[in-house]
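Input record, target 12 of the design panel.
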């Protein structure tokens, strides 16, 4: 049976998800966005059908992907609430909006799935947390929701109570990695390496190290020890990081993100 999947918001993440679904003959794609130029270009690329209003899209869709900024979500949900029913499924990637909040805003019109992505999904290497806590979800709806995100990365089903932890570690995580990449590049430049070469080398360093961690049978602590010879250069750097509490600062930074996620969820 062909399923109609409508996207309210076709920005970076919405577009990435749409592109991941292109080619599936069992899916018809629909889209709405205030940026009509970008929407029409995406329609030309992917074959999705554009809709004039969010209510029109919701009425025509079996699955409705809410991919707007959190501050815009309440108005959208109130607009589509009258056309929602148990046969439809609302999939929200709007950060901070709980399942209960979403259901209240759309008057319990349909089952709700909450999804938290991270930005590497833009290159099909994302990590997704999917909340299937809503008791009104059918098995088909739960299964289909997991399937549509699989082409974009790894999908983990988590209880909503774990979403703030996921946000602190994984949702915000790419920024931490990019921050460290930036610092490594600047250190290379400070030591005399040309910036272009330094950037390429550091990017390859992270790619190779991640690949080794994923494919090796050794724990990451053992892999670190392999590079850390007694009295060598690496151990001096690591001792400095420990003396300046870098590990503790990373842990504290993740907790700050986690706590902020909790605060946003209460608004």
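The sequence produced for target 12 reads:
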């Amino acid at each position: 049976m062909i399923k109609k999947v409508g996207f309210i918001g076709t920005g970076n993440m919405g577009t990435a998800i749409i592109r991941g679904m292109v080619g599936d003959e069992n899916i018809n794609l629909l889209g709405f966005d205030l940026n009509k130029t970008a929407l029409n270009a995406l329609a030309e690329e992917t074959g999705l059908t554009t809709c004039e209003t969010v209510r029109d899209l919701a009425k025509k869709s079996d699955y409705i992907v809410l991919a707007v900024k959190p501050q815009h979500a309440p108005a959208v949900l109130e607009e589509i609430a009258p056309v929602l029913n148990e046969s439809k499924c609302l999939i929200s990637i709007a950060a901070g909006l709980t399942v209960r909040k979403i259901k209240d805003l759309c008057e319990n019109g349909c089952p709700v799935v909450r999804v938290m992505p991270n930005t590497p999904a833009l290159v099909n290497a994302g990590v997704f947390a999917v909340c299937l806590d809503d008791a009104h979800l059918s098995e088909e709806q739960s299964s289909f929701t997991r399937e549509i995100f699989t082409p974009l990365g790894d999908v983990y089903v988590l209880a909503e109570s774990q979403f703030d932890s996921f946000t602190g570690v994984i949702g915000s995580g790419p920024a931490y990695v990019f921050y460290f990449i930036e610092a490594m590049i600047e250190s290379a430049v400070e030591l005399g390496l040309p910036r272009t070469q330094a950037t390429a080398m550091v990017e390859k360093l992270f790619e190779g190290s991640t690949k080794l961690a994923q494919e090796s049978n050794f724990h990451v602590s053992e892999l670190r020890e392999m590079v850390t010879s007694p009295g060598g250069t690496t151990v001096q750097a690591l001792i400095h990081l420990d003396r300046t509490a870098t590990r503790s600062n990373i842990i504290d930074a993740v907790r700050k993100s986690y706590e902020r996620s909790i605060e946003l969820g209460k608004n």
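The first helix runs from residue 12 to 21.
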